[in-house]
Write a structure and sequence with these properties.
This protein is α+β, with helices and mostly antiparallel strands. The protein is built from 21 helices and ten strands. It folds into four domains: 161 residues, Four Helix Bundle (Hemerythrin (Met), subunit A) (Up-down Bundle), CATH 1.20.120; 240 residues, no CATH class; 111 residues, no CATH class; 103 residues, no CATH class. β2 and β3 form a beta hairpin.
Length: 661
């Protein structure tokens, strides 16, 4: 009965979404205040109904109701409770339900936090959200119904994919979806602005907090997915340019460009048309990622293998949403006239360079991801586009972007003196060049690139610190006056500085872990030892055991430093009962400066075990840098100017003259 209630609530939510997507839109066209006033109530009703459906599915998982086909296919009575709950979104149907729930929550936030928005703009935004929700609810109901019954009910389920039975994967999808779906708000604001034919500083102010919230969530989601791949898949790396990884990375790149472009639109009234286009592209790439994951065109540990009907349905959604919005943009964008003029050497110019490089990098990732698929569709040879392609094309685009990141914030609006900026940074330039040469000499690398990466990270960090010190006039005025200036800075300034410092930490971590990783693969018998990076690992044997729904073989390695034992590392191999799948649980001893990473492989006939040992310098900085970026985003979101999105133009009256749509 609970499942039927959830199904019925989902049907009602679809009906409400159709009303929300049509009546307020028509009301905005006609200037009918009563019709526009329907939007907030519809948004609330949609959240309530989808929440009921989601709660019903979660109840079925918690009580192991195997008469529900979705529960039978993705759960088991022996599974720990955490994974029973996370199993709700650890599959195609349930994750789609989580998607529409988050979408509805964003719409509700606009309905009740956007009271200061002009009535026509808010109505159009909520109507676009309603249309997006209607499309995905139809996708759920007609091709991916999570409440289908089995009769007779099986005695037990088929269990969740063992790779997904991990705390990292329990929390990774919700944050990823918050990012994906969050960009729908920027998309809805962009389409609404095109319908109204007006984009100004107030519009950019309204878009920024939603974009920032989506970007922050997506950053955290990607970081959690990378961390999961690092410790769960047992290959010693943290990013493989997997197509599904790229599917989340592309909207992140577009969203980063959108954040910076919106600043120019807000501050200077420039880049209006480009900012609207970026808002459309960011969500379009989120939809493309949804298609890649759910259409069955990809084979990946991240992907949901589905039938072709689902792929065709979501492809149609993709065509309607992306094609329709781009057609509207082509029609209405010429009416969006830029106000602010600026010289190429200016803060606006630096942000334009930022956008061009990010957009080009995003396009590069898109080409590398889709090219093998398109070639396969037209009957060409099967090709694999892997890390070498992306490293050769993506990294060269990032170097000038990161170089400009330090200098750009130091430039004045409208017109800047590049010579003056570099003069203020000359101490940083000399320090980074000296560091580059020293690291190159000290590491005795043939290539200067790893040392350059560390110097580049230092350049970004010192540039961020210099920009902040200039804001508070550090060492130019009395310390007490500097503290008062620091206390008076907007929180978004602190958020920017913390995020840029996070990028510096991330770059250092990526460089060191990629360039100076040590890897040893060998067969070891109990009593054998292995030296690596100043550590001695002594293999003490393998012990079998049993978990809640799996058996394991757990290796035991003593870690010695200077002859003294400092840790015991216990990598595992797990065999799950139901899906009879082997998984690897790496043992990781982490410090601030490096990870000692240990993987237990297969056993040999002579009693030896294959062992992979990695020493990954600065790899913890990768996730530390991501967390700093997330923290910077959260700090900025607490800025009153962004939180309230106070408009600079007066609200429109309900009975305003109807505007062309």
């Amino acid at each position: 009965m609970i499942a039927e209630i959830g199904h019925f609530a989902l049907v009602l939510a679809f009906c409400v979404a159709l009303v929300q997507g049509s009546v307020p839109l028509w009301g905005a066209w006609r200037g009918n205040g009563a019709m526009m006033a329907l939007a907030p109530g519809a948004a609330l009703a949609q959240v309530v109904l989808i929440s009921i459906a989601f709660a019903a599915l979660m109840y079925a998982y918690v009580v192991s109701d195997f008469s529900v086909a979705n529960v039978y296919a993705n759960s088991h009575s022996l599974k720990p409770m955490l994974y029973k709950v996370s199993g709700v979104w650890g599959n195609h149907e349930g994750s789609l339900l989580l998607w529409v729930l988050i979408l509805a929550l964003f719409g509700l936030a606009v309905a009740f936090m956007g009271a200061n928005l002009p009535l026509t703009l808010r109505s159009r935004v909520l109507a676009i959200q309603g249309l997006i929700a209607a499309g995905f609810l139809a996708f759920s109901l007609f091709t991916s119904n999570p409440f289908l019954r089995l009769d007779p009910a099986p005695l037990d389920g088929q269990d969740l994919n063992p790779l997904l039975q991990d705390p990292g994967l329990a929390f990774h999808p919700p944050f990823l979806y918050l990012g994906y779906v969050g960009f729908s708000m920027a998309f809805s604001f962009a389409v609404a602005a095109l319908l109204e034919g007006r984009v100004d500083a107030a519009w950019a102010r309204w878009v920024r907090p939603w974009t920032l919230a989506a970007w922050t969530s997506l950053t955290l989601g990607i970081a959690m997915g990378s961390w999961w791949a690092y410790y769960e898949l047992g290959w010693g790396g943290w990013w493989f340019w997997d197509p599904v990884e790229n599917a989340s990375f592309m909207p992140w790149l577009a969203g980063t460009a959108l954040l910076h472009s919106a600043i120019v639109t807000e501050k200077r009234g420039a880049l209006k048309s480009w900012t609207v286009l970026l808002a459309i592209i960011a969500f379009s790439l989120s939809l493309l990622g949804t298609f890649l994951v759910r259409s069955g065109v990809l084979t990946s540990v991240h992907a949901f293998a589905t039938d072709p009907t689902r792929g065709i349905f979501i492809l149609l959604l993709l065509i309607v949403a992306i094609g329709g919005s781009l057609a509207l943009y082509a029609w209405r964008a010429p009416t969006l006239k830029a106000d602010g003029l600026f010289a190429p050497i200016s803060r606006e110019g630096a942000l334009v360079l930022n956008n061009l490089l990010l957009a080009t990098a995003c396009f590069t990732v898109l080409v590398g991801t889709l090219y093998p698929l398109l070639l396969d569709v037209i009957g060409g040879a099967k090709v694999s586009v892997g890390p070498p392609f992306f490293e050769l094309t993506f990294i060269p685009l990032m170097v000038p972007l990161l170089l400009a990141m330090a200098a750009g914030p130091l430039m004045a609006w409208k017109r800047a003196d590049l010579r003056g900026v570099l003069s203020r940074m000359k101490a940083i330039v000399f320090a980074c060049l000296a560091l580059w040469g020293f690291i190159w000499w000290y590491t005795t690398d043939l290539s200067p690139l790893p040392a350059f990466g560390i110097a580049l990270a230092t350049w970004i960090a010192m540039g961020a610190l210099l920009e902040f010190s200039e804001r508070i006039q550090l060492f130019r005025i009395k310390p007490g006056a500097s503290l008062r200036r620091a206390a008076g800075l907007p929180r978004s300034a602190y958020g920017m500085s913390v995020s840029h410092l996070g990028v510096a930490v991330l770059v250092a971590g990526i460089t060191a872990s990629s360039a100076w990783q040590t890897e040893i693969i060998r067969a070891m018998q109990p009593g054998d030892s292995q030296e690596i990076a100043g550590y001695t690992l002594v293999f003490e044997g393998v012990n079998p055991g049993q978990g809640p729904n799996y058996t394991y073989e757990r290796g035991q390695f003593a870690v010695l430093r200077d002859g003294e034992q400092i840790a015991i590392m216990e990598p595992e191999k797990r065999q799950f009962f139901v899906q009879t799948m082997l998984t690897t649980e790496a043992a990781i001893r982490t410090t601030l400066m490096a990870d000692l990473y240990l993987v237990l492989g297969d056993s040999g006939a002579d009693g030896s075990w294959a062992v992979r040992i990695y020493y990954n310098p600065l790899v913890p900085w990768i996730w530390g840098g991501c967390l700093m970026m997330v923290f910077g985003g959260l700090i900025s979101l607490t800025d009153r100017r962004l939180r309230l999105a106070i408009p600079s133009r007066r609200k429109q009256a309900v009975a305003a003259k109807p505007q062309a749509a």
